[in-house]
Write a structure and sequence with these properties.
single chain, about 325 residues, alpha+beta, Deoxyribonuclease I, Chain A, 2 domains, 6-stranded mixed beta sheet
Length: about 325
């Protein structure tokens, strides 16, 4: 009889332990009750199904650095792919992406194709794995978009060849593409870039001037366009002011500023990997020209076990060519 009572007590304790563990997460080696603090946030975005309406994302993927430890790329790629699939972008501009990034994501995101060029050697990433680093790739949903044209330019005196003299040894490019929506006659351009980092605002300003000039040269001002990027500059800077100047050759509009719905998520987009960091910077933007409406704009702050999937958070907007 005593044995039965002991077994019942042990069974009760075991069930209690299981129930406690089911309602908890191990975060930073601490057991945290889900009712007190979430360790994972997962948000979603509906697919854009209306003709002329597109979900556009910009995302700095963070290069694969051995010093990142647990946050090295092989440990992050599935999280990033799942984030992308939850938010259904039709078009994405990546930064700090190498050949390993794009080939991994290409295998995981079966509805997408991509273009990109090696910043150092100018090799087309789809033609050769020699295009190793900083491809500034553009991923696009082939169910919605057909690629018409593509190209790349460098921030240099001769924009057609790899050159790092403007950027103190760093090769900086802008990759562009011309798309046609499969279900309509809508045509638009997309540009994706990564401006100089550090405290080099003067260099960023010169790069932004060239960027606007090249956009006008390529599009002739005849087509709508989107511009994604890590601009390494904040909204109060002279570089941002130039890019958003409505009197420039290409009067770009920050999609955050003319969204029909209030911006979701944090203003800051760069935090490092630490999801507890509250001192981020707003340096990743999506600009547009000649689109009729911006339906929403958000920073996606999804994290897992207090780590973001990258040191930047992706920015997502939905824009429309319809009145």
């Amino acid at each position: 009889m005593k044995t039965c009572k002991v077994l019942k007590i042990c069974s009760f304790i075991l069930v209690a332990i299981v129930l406690v563990n089911c309602n908890s997460k191990n975060v930073n080696n601490q057991v945290v009750n889900e009712t007190d603090q979430k360790s994972t946030i997962e948000t979603t975005t509906n697919r854009a199904t209306t003709s002329g309406v597109f979900n556009i994302m910009t995302y700095n993927l963070r290069f694969d650095s051995p010093s990142d430890g647990i946050n090295r790329w092989p440990n992050r790629k599935n999280k990033i792919a799942n984030l992308i699939l939850r938010h259904n972008p039709d078009l994405m501009g990546f930064q700090e992406d190498s050949y390993i990034h794009v080939t991994d994501l290409d295998a995981l995101l079966t509805d997408y194709k991509w273009i990109g060029y090696g910043a150092v050697n100018g090799v087309n990433g789809n033609d050769s794995e020699d295009a190793i680093d900083h491809l500034n790739s553009i991923f696009y949903n082939t169910q919605r978009l057909n690629l018409l044209e593509q190209g790349v330019f460098w921030y240099a005196d001769d924009t057609s060849i790899p050159d790092a003299t403007w950027s103190e040894g760093y090769y900086r490019t802008c990759v562009w593409a011309k798309f046609k929506e499969r279900q309509s006659d809508h045509i638009f351009y997309h540009f994706n870039t990564h401006l100089q980092h550090k405290e080099d605002e003067d260099i960023r300003l010169i790069q932004a001037q060239l960027l606007l000039s090249k956009i006008h040269e390529i599009t002739q001002g005849d087509f709508p366009l989107t511009l994604t990027g890590d601009f390494n500059t904040i909204p109060s800077s002279v570089t941002y002011s130039l890019l958003s100047d409505n009197s420039s050759q290409v009067p770009l509009i920050d999609t955050k500023n003319n969204s029909a719905l209030e911006h979701e998520g944090t203003d800051a987009t760069f935090f490092g990997f630490d999801a507890k960091n509250e001192n981020g910077k707003e340096i990743d933007f999506i600009f547009q020209f000649q689109f009729k409406n911006v339906l929403f704009h958000k920073t996606i702050n999804d994290y897992n076990d207090w780590f973001y999937p990258s040191d930047h958070c992706p920015v997502l907007t939905q824009i429309s060519l319809n009145e």
